[in-house]
Amino acid sequence: MPKIMVVDDAAFMRLRAVKLLTEAGHQVIEAENGRVAVEMYIRERPDAVLMDITMPEMDGLEALTEIRKADPAARVAMITAMGQQSIVMDAIKRGARDFVVKPFAPDRVLGAVDKLLG
Hints:
This protein is of the alpha/beta class. The protein is built from 5 helices and 5 strands; from the N terminus they run βαβαβαβαβα. The protein has a 5-stranded parallel sheet, with helices on both faces. It starts with a strand and ends with a helix. The mean pLDDT is 94.
């Protein structure tokens, strides 16, 4: 059972993603900001990460950079609001493999996870 880490400062977004991924048969762990995500990634080594870009303490781009330093093979998809194309391009340059636009459609989230795990 693949382990997926969901990183978002909005509890309702994490809850929605966790429910969707759990129902699809994944083990899910959660982090509420980038700093916690980096610590948890190093400790838990999830198979894939879905991470919001805009968060307090450490944003998703910084966390992506730190996670990729710890594990260059990390599989990360960014979750972004509409209109953040330049940030998405930066995330891809930093090693993100996909991105999902909020509010996310369930099939798009599952497709991104399948792509990360494939």
